Amino acid sequence: MNLITECTSKTVLDYEKSKSLVEELARRYPFLSADVIGRSGTGRAIFALSLGNKKNRVLLAGTFHGCEWLTALVLFRFCERLCRSLDQRSELCSVNISRAFSQLGVMIVPCVNPDGVEIAVHGADGAGSAKRFVESLGCGDYSRWNANAAGVDINHNFNAGWETLRKMEEESGITGPAPRRFGGYRAESEAETKTITRLCRMLPFRQAMALHSQGEELFWCYGDDTPAQAHMMAKILADSCSYRLVENDGLASHGGFKDWFISEFFRPAFTMEIGKGENPLPIAQFENIYNRIEEALTIFTLM
After folding, report:
1. What tens digit of pLDDT does each residue of 158-201 get?
2. Distance CA 209, CA 28 (A)
3. Spatial distance between the Cα atoms of 235 and 231, rounded to a whole number of angstroms
């Protein structure tokens, strides 16, 4: 039984289990770089796992929303599968990963929002010093918590049409910290957002993908800033896993990581909404979800 299967056969993925997975993967595979790239609002580490050529990398990031912790498991599984292929010089999805990664590389950030995960899994107790504040927002139900410990939705906090999104939030009655959809009082106000934007400004990723749940959809564009090749790339990725291609709409129109990456760097970026159902998706769906999208994730790293 592999490492991630051992984890998914037991329980949900919280911060301590994520930390243990990072440490164990790095122990098993010495060629895997494991780094702390930042800290959450309450001080929890935000980890990055790197493989392959560091001069030509793509970025995969998950768990921007607390209750979407299944995306972190997907990325841990993909990382482990890449590591095993490199270690054993075997193929993954009919690709010689060892040969490909002599030229290409990937950085994986499994959990952008560890505080949000702790709150979604453990309730207000997971918020640490922000417990009382989170209690005032959660009203006893934290199972669908998306925000960080400050009540800010990280995927509404990026500086891409943020002012427009703020007006849309206010028109929808979202005026302050909340379990979901409040984008903060200014763009890039949150420690988690700053961690990812700083990372991308330091390292020239050729493209990026954010994993969310749910919907079995792939978002690929952001207005006039969208690179010309992005639609064809998105079509290839969507076809490989039979996901639906969609464009931004409503409160998902601005402020997201994909939107910011496209507008900041004019390079391709995508949002993959894994699985289908109601968040948090049950762990029982993990194997089916992962098996369906592994080829798409592999193609993305090679594009």
Report:
1. 999 999 999 999 999 999 999 999 999 999 999 999 999 999 99
2. 26
3. 6
